[in-house]
Amino acid sequence: MSNHTFTVRRPDAATALVADSDLPPLHHYIDGAFTDSAGEYTLVNPADGRTIADVPRGSAEDVDTAVAAAVTAFDTWRDTTPKDRADLLLAIADRVEANADVLARLEAADAGKPRMVADDDVSGTADIFRFSAGAARAYTEQGAGDYVADHTSMILREPLGVIGAIVPWNYPLLMAAWKIAPILAAGNTLVLKPSEQTPLSMLKFMEIIDDLLPAGVMNVVTGRGSVVGARLSEHPDIAMVALTGSVNSGKTVAESASDSLKRVHLELGGKAPVVIFEDADLQQAAEALREAGYWNSGQECGAGTRVLVHESVAEKFTQLLVEQVASLVVGDPAAGEDVEIGPLVSEDHFTRVTSFIDRALADGASAAIGGGALDGDGYYVAPTVLTGVQPGTEAASEEIFGPVVTVETFTTEKEAIDRANEVPYGLAASVFTTDAARSLSVPRRIDAGTVWVNCHLVLANDVPWGGFKGSGYGRDLSLYALQDYSRTKHVQINHGRR
Ligand code: NAD
């Protein structure tokens, strides 16, 4: 138990992350132009509760207009060569980099992101466009061949058509880029819906790339999931709906998509176990968790949130983790570039996370550090480590999505693996061990789309990202994303002489 207390660093009264001149046009982006909408709603900065801007509240009709534009644009875009598409994607990456500062500031203000997280999101955004440009040109199918006498078979890889992309608030620009880049690289057009809580960076993105893409290739409709997202999921002219979001939204989207039998691509929640064996380098594990458990204030689907540590080293490890967590800098993203933990994204989410902590404490857990809300304006929660968490309790099995790491203990390797797999999620996991055999055998038994060994939350755009079980299906990033956003067609030519 630590008696460390966190305080929220506040900026000078005169410091503002964004000026009015930084804001994008506050309209949908449809058919190559910013377009009015009938309704609006207000965005607030979660660091201080102040209004940032009013943005369009999209309707089903707005979605229909955007889909019609994407359908028309697909006719031409589908026939562009990989090189043409790659050149455009590289130009987009250049624009993102040239506007990195304003994109990061908008993201920080809209989502409450520390500047270091926002900067990382923007550089990851530029890189996925670069990766996808290269991938578009390098991606090939098996060569033509005769599998029936006198008949040559060719496998064509084709785009799917119009994709509906629906993205969350935790990485508004980056999660959108993970969809946009491979979707365009594969020759599709799209209609994207940002989270209603964080649409600014996507509208800015459209402003800065406005002259690059042909009209209708990429469209953005802002607004609520139950209206804009629902229409995208059911729209008969959409070939696939790709959602990054919560498990509940995933189920609703899959259900609405079933009527038109469109493809569904789901990147959903997670509850990543971090299995620490008795032979692990405990200092390395504690340092890795400082980042992996608390990056983006723990609002991270792959966060290392659920430690399963061997009982013989649990006390030592917890002490090392608490030391690491005590050094985290909490503050308003406008209060300095060294701020590591910002506010949670909204009042609702703040209430959700603090209630999780309260219920865990009532369930018998103890806060080794942190343990609740921080004083003052904004939605700040103290970086928290909960010990004595019992298997099967809510804190051990549900996604909290805040700066909270729980610690449970285990006795045998089999128990560790079974417990790592007992939650309904299967997005990511990690194993800390210095035993070479264990570092190869345990990851194979863990039911998660990514398993790290002696690290956690180390990402690269070249390798696939996505889950199993309740975390959904489909892969973002890497060549596998291009595969998901395209289809194969067999063309067979009879060349026998008659
Ligand atoms: P959310 O599910 O509430 O919202 C995600 C998006 O879905 C938003 O744009 C929202 O408006 C839309 N939506 C909501 N209801 C909908 C409906 N009925 N039909 C269509 N669209 C609908 O999720 P969130 O709170 O924005 O984001 C946090 C969640 O996202 C967490 O569970 C997190 O783990 C998950 N996430 C997963 C990944 C991944 O790669 N697997 C990455 C980031 C976030």
UniProtKB/TrEMBL annotation:
- Which top class of enzyme applies to this chain? oxidoreductase
UniProt EC number:
1.2.1.19
**Active site located where?**
E267
Concerning InterPro entries, the annotation shows:
Ald_DH/histidinol_DH, Ald_DH_C, Ald_DH_CS_CYS, Ald_DH_CS_GLU, Ald_DH_N, Aldehyde_DH_dom
User: What GO molecular function terms would the record report?
Assistant: aminobutyraldehyde dehydrogenase (NAD+) activity
PROSITE patterns with a match to the protein in the record? ALDEHYDE_DEHYDR_CYS (PS00070), ALDEHYDE_DEHYDR_GLU (PS00687)
Keywords, A to Z, come to: Oxidoreductase
Record domain Aldehyde dehydrogenase: where: 37-491
* Similarity section: Belongs to the aldehyde dehydrogenase family.
> Which PANTHER family would you find in this protein's record?
ALDEHYDE DEHYDROGENASE-RELATED
Protein name per UniProt = Gamma-aminobutyraldehyde dehydrogenase
